[in-house]
Amino acid sequence: MSLRNFISEAISPWMKNEGPDADIVLSSRVRLARNLSKPPFPIAASKEQLEEVIDLVNKKCVTHTHRKFGELELLRMEDMKKNEKRVLVEKHLISPNLSDESKAGAVLLSEDESLSIMINEEDHFRIQVLLSGFQLTEGLRYANEIDDWMEDKVDFAFTENRGYLTSCPTNVGTGLRASVMMHLPALVITRQMNRILPAINQLGLVVRGIYGEGSEALGNLFQISNQITLGKSEEDIVDDLRSVVSQLIQQERAARESLLQQSKLQIEDRVFRSFGLLSYSRTMESKEAAQHLSNVRLGIDMGLIDNVSGNILNELMILTQPGFLQQYAGEILSPEQRDQRRASLIRERLKLEN
How is it regulated at the activity level (predicted)? Predict the structure, then answer.
């Protein structure tokens, strides 16, 4: 398969759109944790009880078409190969937990993959909406629509004084986790992130790497999300996050402008060194690739590199992950082979721009 066709099939359709402030906010995600009222929560349920949850979803939800998200496809983890599940993790459609540890896990996916509903992960349901750019308010609206749509069909665990009940106490209440994926290279280069991160944590928000809790901020990509779910409305939680993200956007833009005015030669050298290495290297580790891709994307957004799509960072940060490299190769690869394939895929992708 040609790389162009592979990209067309592999990249989620929603990622190809360019949402508001997409030069800094790559994506917005809103997730709602929900449980059924009668079966035990997944952490205490038997495999047979969890299978009943999947059967209920298959009967009540799969047979219905949603007005925005269309038909939903049910994928059972036990029916999928290891690398197929890995690809879903790399696309942020399921968690590593669901892929590796669930007794009877599944996911409901919309055709454009902007909606995924994880089944029997930590909770019976994790409703997740993914949108390009800075669209937290829109994400919350769509997530609430799906929440209402499902609540018409199944009975959620809910009490008036505690709200929605979840396996983890930190999710009790709204069950809401809202997050954005931000590209903040200028704040990292100017060493402002070290000052900003503690301030963000004091505001009840948390900053993680590209794959959430415990992951590194590869390629200057940071996931920023709420920590508090109880005692605030969904709208207030999203508004608080929106306010902080808006300030970070302004600070990143100011830092980029400062770099152009005060250190243009050094930034150009950084950007074009990375562009050269990506264009000609024969082997490249994932961490190195992420850093060079971040530099090139910064060069594109600052107007230093012409005729290269800004989507290249979004695409290659996913396509150069182990699961996708092996899917493209059609075989299991050793770490050394993956490094060679990664470099080859990046070179080929850059040639497509010409």
Answer: Appears to be allosterically activated by the binding of pArg-containing polypeptides to the pArg-binding pocket localized in the C-terminal domain of McsB.
Question: pLDDT tens digits for 224-267?
Answer: 999 877 788 999 999 999 999 999 999 999 999 999 999 999 99
The rounded radius of gyration (Å) of the Cα atoms in the chain is 21
27 marked among binding-site residues:
yes
Is 208 annotated in a binding site? The answer is yes
Question: Is residue 177 part of an annotated ligand binding site?
Answer: yes
Q: What are phi and psi of 109, to 5 degrees?
A: -120, 140
Residue the block writes with tokens 């794959």: 211
End-to-end CA distance of the chain: 19
Q: Is 342 marked within a binding site?
A: no
Q: Is 265 exposed, middle or buried (0-12, 13-18, 19+ CB in 10 A)?
A: exposed
- DSSP code at position 148: H
Is 209 flagged in the annotation as binding? yes
Q: Is 126 annotated as a binding residue?
A: yes
Confidence of residue 23 (pLDDT cuts 50, 70, 90): very high
Residue 284 annotated as binding site: no
Tokens, residue 276: 């050269």
Is 105 known as a binding-site position?
no
Q: 282 among the known binding-site residues?
A: no
Residue of 242 and 38 predicted with greater confidence: 242
pLDDT in tens, 46-78: 999 999 999 999 888 876 667 778 788 999 999
- pTM (whole model) above 0.90: yes
Residues ≥6 apart with Cβ < 8 Å to 202: none
Contact 118, 126 (CB under 8 A): yes
- The share of the chain scoring above pLDDT 90, in percent, equals 68
For residue 135, report the phi and psi dihedrals to the nearest 5 degrees: -135, 50
Beta carbons of 180 and 223 less than 8 angstroms apart: yes
